[in-house]
UniProtKB/TrEMBL annotation:
PANTHER family for this protein: THIOL:DISULFIDE INTERCHANGE PROTEIN DSBE, THIOREDOXIN-LIKE PROTEIN HI_1115
Pfam families: AhpC-TSA (PF00578)
Annotated source species: Arcicella lustrica
Highest taxon listed in the record's lineage: Bacteria
Domain Thioredoxin: 497-656
Keywords: Redox-active center, Signal
Protein name: TlpA disulfide reductase family protein
UniProt xrefs under SUPFAM superfamilies: Thioredoxin-like
Amino acid sequence: MKKLICGLMLLFSQVLLAQQPQSRVTFEPVRAQPGQDLSITYNPAGSPLAGKKDIKGIVYTYENFVWHANDLSLKEENNSWKANIKLAKDCGLVAVKYTSGDLVDNNDDQTFAQMLIDESGKFAVGAYAGWGLLRAPNYGYSVQQYLRNANISDSAVYFWLNQEISFHPKEASEVMSVPFCQALFKMQGLSSIPRINRVVAFLSKNSSEENMLKILSIFRYPLQNKTSEDSLTKVILTNYPTGNLARLKAFQQVNLEPNFDKKVEQATAFLKQFPYKESDFDYNENNRINYTNVYLMVALQALMQKNYAKLTTLASELPFSTIPTIYYKCIDIAHKRKDLDDQTLFAPSQALMQRMESFKNQRPAQYLYLSPSEWTKEYERLFIQTFGLIQTNIYRNTGHWDEAMTLANRVQQTLQFKSAELNNEQALLLEHFKQYNQLQEVLVKSMHENQSSPEMIELLKRDYQRVKGNVEGFDDYVSGLKNPALASKELEELKSIMIKKSMPDWTMKDGNGKTVKFSELRGKTIIMDFWATWCVPCKASFPGMKLAVEKYKNDPNVAFFFVDTEERSLNYKQEIMQYIKENNYPFTILFDNKLPNQKANDEVFNRICKAFTISGIPQKLIIDKNGKLRFITVGFKGSATGLADEISAMIELTKKAE
């Protein structure tokens, strides 16, 4: 009893804490009521934001048991930041946080909050529940990304919810029933069952599907009553054949169907019977009803059937979170692999982008925890990540020059010349529009970030020759444009990952049928680039590798080998040599060995993967003159000049290695 009394005293002290001026934040009036004007003052002294001039504020209001996020309009006065807001009439609690760049002040996870009071002087509807659930994110009713590590005890959650239901039974009893039962059981265990059963009986008085689903949730946990759960499930499905539970069951059937054609048929029927726009987002999220998976099945079939009109029409109804996946699977991959020409991809890609833009000024349900300014920033990040590079390229390739230029400029505002692919697109567009001053700026800034392409180097060389009259000194000019601090940092990083391991021996044939033996290459620095015709990033890295090869073409002690591996087609050797010739790559091709009864030529690569616990291509190995492996580099970061410089730096470090 003594512990219980102490616990209650602590909890009541937290009520008072929520009402007091909280160090850096003060609320005026201190005991604000719903519907009133509220003044909020923030003094960042002693916080991570002290001295910052770009402070922003976000206010979270708990209205009718739902969180809302909004930006604060701040005004600086005497080293403090003030804002005024109008409280909604159904608001029960207010919480704020302040930011400056990536820095956040939320009172060290203790929150800056105020519980509102009603006209009678009692805490307003939602005040208790909001104060409890705000600091208990593991219950799933908090504000996403507001608190980092806070999680009050189950007994504290029970206390606040019990207070809410006790003082506001009409408004809170149903809506808070599930988290209340969960907290009660976690606190009292089996002794709580009789009271939980009374909650179930109370909910049963209203036979709406919403209440029945709450009971079903309680049957699952905490009661773990499978018999009652199954029985109630049948009742709900009978009474609500197009309701939430019916949607869940239909979705599960789509997921479980192994046959693709039948799966698509079920997915199509599911979307017709349970349109996304009419669905309950919270129920979808809580029960993992993933509309993206359903739409993807229909979209992929449309793509395989070359029904681009259907894909274009489908785009107009997609949920926000589904758009990036559909674009990647149906547009991005097809574009990069050249499975379809860009003229064909234009209409569906344009429709997908327009659908995403329709959400720009309307936060989707899953992002309501973001304030409008936060949503604007997050939206732009997702938009650029999804469409930026590929859609710009599709626009340019299909002759939509103005759209390409507008999109490239928009994306560049975020990427700030740190993407070679975008820099290349923008440079080619500026050349098309004969905007030479802007082109020169893009070329120079791109080179400064070491994010350029061979095409951009040629443009830069052309401009250099126009000004100087010849190309003498061009290489020194280019080197002078690069950021020395960036180069120095990358060099130190390479030194830190340098290794010394014995390489497995190998023998392979080159593109002319000549045998090449590793044992006969001693004394040379060797670069082995493992790639395949089906590997998009492998081929994307070739322009950068070409720059590196050309840099060392007169060095007899450096040897590049481009090892084709993991091929399955019958005529891959002829296809590869034709590809190398058509693209004018000065590469020495080696063909990985194909063991008897194996489908792919991967004998050497498999042994190297096992030796160094690596996998995947592109995979580049740098080997010293004594046959020791010094560097392993995986993937391609997108910059031809960046890759060429990285390979060059690794070669020079390897040459000097003992």
